[in-house]
From TrEMBL:
Its EC number is 4.1.1.33. It comes from the Bacteria. GO terms for biological process: isopentenyl diphosphate biosynthetic process, mevalonate pathway. Residues 8-165 form the Diphosphomevalonate decarboxylase-like N-terminal domain. It is an enzyme of class 4 (lyase). It comes from Candidatus Kaiserbacteria bacterium RIFCSPLOWO2_01_FULL_54_13. GO terms for molecular function: ATP binding; diphosphomevalonate decarboxylase activity. Keywords: ATP-binding, Lipid biosynthesis, Lipid metabolism, Lyase, Nucleotide-binding. This is diphosphomevalonate decarboxylase. One of its GO terms (cellular component) is cytosol. Residues 186-307 form the Mvd1 C-terminal domain. Belongs to the diphosphomevalonate decarboxylase family.
Length: 331
């Protein structure tokens, strides 16, 4: 029987950047994010004699996977199988699989689909196993894309770095469910240019930055503050710690060798204007950027009209809106 699963991206509030073991995507530090409810990715996995993967655009037209993408998907399947065998739940697991991946993420909105794709795949692979915990599903998601582990949970979730080299050493856990705090994400995409360096290649360079060690020392306290802010629904505290961490990650990126500069002039202009607007109108809004110039404006419902108004006035930008999501699931 084929298994169908669905998931969506997440936006990081404490950023994951750098691994302690690249092949297994074992992160160098904890991170934390808010799971979005859209745009979704759906996958179907079925038993097959050999591995194959087909991908479709939001409008249903087939999209040819690059060699790199196919290799990553197959490697992920093999790692998932290894992990499920290691924890002795792979009895009915397929020798190989055929995959169909339908992404509703328009290329133009600057949101990476990997977190949604690999968490949905983890869900589907988990469906072939017996008695799998949510933590195990998050480990399988992590093996395809580190941040995907966090999309397994809805609401707010943390990726725990853990210790050691075991496959299951790092996993995600829920900090608060989707209905805890109804924040919104207004996404402003200033550029449609494809990224030059993807996150997988970027993580490898983190260690070359002279700022990376200090970042690793700062994260435990930031993670703690961020969790407190979420539990207490203290927006100001959340804004302070997440903006500090975001700028710190981009400073690490920009000071690595070679330097990774994901933010554009437009990104900096939006940040400046949002800070002014927030101060002037006392708005509960914060900005954050992942590995690209796209700005996420996370806000409370009270700030929504002003933030929407600001976003819709941006020329040559694509605007996208999401709410907090429930995480990946078998459908
Ligand atoms: C900047 O999860 O995309 O978005 O494990 O190589 O797929 P891979 O990396 P990825 O890295 C995410 C980087 C980030 C920050 C974050 O989401 O925490």
């Amino acid at each position: 029987m084929p298994i169908r699963a669905s998931s969506a991206p997440n936006v990081a509030l404490i950023k994951y950047w750098g691994n302690r073991k690249e092949e297994l995507r074992l992160p160098a530090a904890d991170s934390l994010s808010m799971t979005l409810d859209r745009p979704t990715v759906e996958v179907v996995a079925d038993h097959a004699g050999y591995f194959s993967a087909r991908s479709f655009e939001p409008d249903g037209t087939p999209r040819t996977l690059t060699e790199k993408e196919s290799t990553r998907l197959e490697k992920h399947f093999l790692l998932a199988k290894k992990y499920l065998t290691d924890i002795s739940v792979a009895h009915a697991f397929p020798a190989s699989v055929s995959l169909e991946i339908r992404s509703n993420i328009p290329r133009s909105i600057g949101l990476a689909s990997s977190a949604a794709v690999f968490s949905a795949l983890a869900e589907a692979y988990g469906g072939f196993a017996t008695q799998l915990s949510r933590r195990d599903v998050s480990v399988i998601a992590r093996l395809g894309s580190g941040s995907a582990s966090r999309s397994v949970f809805g609401g707010f979730s943390a990726m725990i770095a853990g210790e050691g080299d075991a496959i299951g050493a790092s996993y995600a856990k829920e900090i608060a469910p989707a209905n805890h705090w109804k924040l919104r994400d207004i996404i402003i995409v200033p550029s449609h240019k494809e990224k030059e360096t993807g996150s997988t290649e970027g993580h490898v360079l983190a260690h070359t930055s002279p700022l990376f060690e200090a970042r690793l020392r700062a994260i435990p306290q930031r993670q703690k503050t961020c969790i407190e802010a979420i539990r207490e629904k203290d927006f100001e505290k959340l804004a302070r710690v997440s903006e500090e961490d975001c700028l710190d990650m981009h400073a690490v990126m920009a000071s690595s060798t070679p330097a990774l500069r994901y933010l554009s002039e437009e990104t900096h202009r939006i940040i400046r204007e949002i800070k002014e607007l927030r101060a002037r109108e006392h708005l509960a809004v914060l900005y954050t950027m992942d590995a690209g110039p796209t700005v996420h404006l996370i806000c409370e419902e009270s700030a929504l009209p002003a933030v929407r108004g600001y976003a819709s006035a941006q020329k040559d930008c694509t605007i996208f809106e999401a709410e907090i999501g429930k995480g990946s699931r078998v459908v």
